[in-house]
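We now fix the convention by which a protein and its fold are recorded. The integers have meaning only within a learned vocabulary of local backbone shapes. A complete example follows; check for yourself that the lines match position by position.
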Amino acid sequence: MVSPEPQAILHSSPLAHLDYSVELQVKDQGLSGFWKQHRLPGRPEQIIRSPKARGYRTTSKRKGFLHGSTLYLLLGDKGALPKNRQYFTASPLEPKEHEVIYRFLQQKLSEPAFRLIAGHLNYLIIRGNYAEQAVIFNVDLMNGPLVRKMKLLSAHLQKLPVAITAAFVYLDPSQSDYYLETKRPAETLHFKKLFGPDQLGATYSGCRYQFHPTSFSQINESMVETMLEQAKELLAPSPDQSLLDLYCGYGLFSHFLAPAYRQVLAVDGEGPSIRAADANSRLNKNRPGQTKFLAHRITVGYLEKTLPPPMVNESILLDPPRQGPLPGVIASLARRKPKKVLHIFCGVDQIPPSLREWQASGYAVKRITPLDMFPGSANLEILILLEPKA
């Protein structure tokens, strides 16, 4: 029988034991088989390899579970509590700096002085880039005594040999499984800074970005510039074209592509990400191109009644969350008659129904470019270019 923690590693990184070249061959074969099984149009190109095959994740998490006087930081859930007293297990997909931080916090939070924090900890989250990290304490309670303890702990964090530039507290009294990525704090009361800057930062291909610590960001920093360049190659923008960027987040694609377009209109739901996208316009003033950001949930009603009409020679970049766009959104977008659509998938599950909907709406697949955004795992990022049927 495999022990719980190795099982968790196998679940989160099932291909990490393979040589990376072998892993890519397995993924190429698997993607080809998936395409044939679902009778999908077109043929996927060879998967583009990641510059970093291991140790690449810039976001990681551990589930906290206080057992007796000891805090366990688990890759899985409470049911996977190891019986071998292994309080923390490193992942081959995470940088060594993450391991240093987790091991330090596991020891500190098991001490009597900080056990109050351990008892209310849902998750420990690390976010940032390869140069610096921020720590987020996801807790089920936020009050004065708990915050004071976390500020004391933060003083110890800042003395570690790895660069920790900020720490935050994120309140989730429901103790849900989402930890950050699929839900955002509704009010600023749910999120508190312990030390450091309010925003995380990144620079890609000459563009500067700042974003809230709860905003979605790509976990494989080494692949972001490759993804941006591939998107630009597929869309082939020109100054007489316009771009509608949907689910734009903090403006990653919008700001990068704007100089090549006549104008860019970008939309995402109300919250810290779209506010960061607009604010990032000031960080990229030296780049030509007109860009406007709108905050709204992307629904059929919004697309049909509120969103401005199609722009001149409009292309659409569609980068929805993993569960895909809401029903009817693809058909509604097709009615705008875009010249090109770049639909980005962060997994394969949504590809068959989405492509069927695009085909039914008069669009054909032109190119399929898979990126190995998630080495060691079974996931892929897939960019699919569609154009109106001849």
